Amino acid sequence: MMLLKTEQNRIADDFIKQKLLTGKDSPEKYYLAAKVALLTGKKSEGEAFLKKGIAFEDAPGYLYIKLADHYETEGKFEKVIEILEECIVRKPDFQEAWIKLCTFYIDRQEMALALETIQAGYQKFQELPVFQSNLAWILLENHQETDRALKLAQDAYENDPDSVAFADTLGWAYYNKGIYSQAIWLLSEAEKKDPDNGFIKYHLGMTYYQKGEIEKAMEYLKSAEQSKESKYFAQNLSDILNTLSNKKPITLEGMNQKDIDESILSPPEIEKKDDNMILPQWKQ
To answer: Of 141, 151, 64, which Cα lies nearest the Cα of 99?
Structure first.
């Protein structure tokens, strides 16, 4: 096995040298060299190639993302923020950098910074559904501006009613507004398309509880607890399951029903529009 690994590294080294010595120098060449180096365990060499790649004025955004991913794998979190912020400054139209930085903050439970990042991105890309939906989701998670979050979620959903992520966010917005029947309809439709989505299971479980359907609530919440997405709501889910086990009522802050246009309570019938935006991992 050691000989095989040594042979693979030798071939990789030859490949890198050949690519770097032939043709015009370019960021794409360094990106390819970096990928090979990282795949063969040469982390410092791969990092060096990526740095050379982003030194080009016309370096594509995916080089920054690759370098940020490398730093995150290595636990160099300050470097992750630094390289993504540099990408946003140098390539402000590269939408994925905004989403990547926001996702990074969410993974670290730094929700205030996540909100600040997505707010800034939304100011630039406010017509794009992915920014509308993600801003709505983070506002809801921060228990802020639920009316605005509902409007943003509706706008995103209207642009692409087939999107599971957008339907989930809008369903969660309805939940936070106390419109449980509409929330269940939307979330149930989303679950049909993505039955293993932990966010949807968690949101459905919470909504069924508020509707008084305890058995369904427990079924969905326990299933959400086993999902890969559970890290995003683990503490709250644990508290809720304990509450349910003790049969104690729960309430949400600001859960009073407000006067809302009845037209938003019926399933929307809107023409689908193409949306090829990349969704962040926490909303896929």
So the answer is: 64
Q: Express each pLDDT in 182-221 by its tens digit.
A: 999 999 999 999 999 999 999 999 999 999 999 999 999 9
Q: How far apart are CA 44 and CA 97, in angstroms?
A: 23
Six-digit token pair at 214?
């305890």
Phi-psi region of 216 (alpha: psi -120 to 50; beta: other; left: phi over 0): alpha
Cα angle for residues 9, 11, 16 (degrees, 5° grid):
90
Domains of the chain: 128-267+278-284 (1.25.40.10)
- CA-CA distances (angstroms) from residue 197 to 158, 163, 200, 221, 242? 21, 13, 6, 12, 22
Q: Which of 20, 22, 19, 70 is nearest to 42 (CA)?
A: 70
Torsion of CA 266, 188, 236, 256, to 10 degrees: 20
Residues in the chain: 284
Query: Of 206, 204, 221, 220, which Cα lies nearest the Cα of 255?
Result: 206
The pTM is what? 0.77
Contact 83, 68 (CB under 8 A): yes
Q: Is 260 exposed, middle or buried (0-12, 13-18, 19+ CB in 10 A)?
A: middle
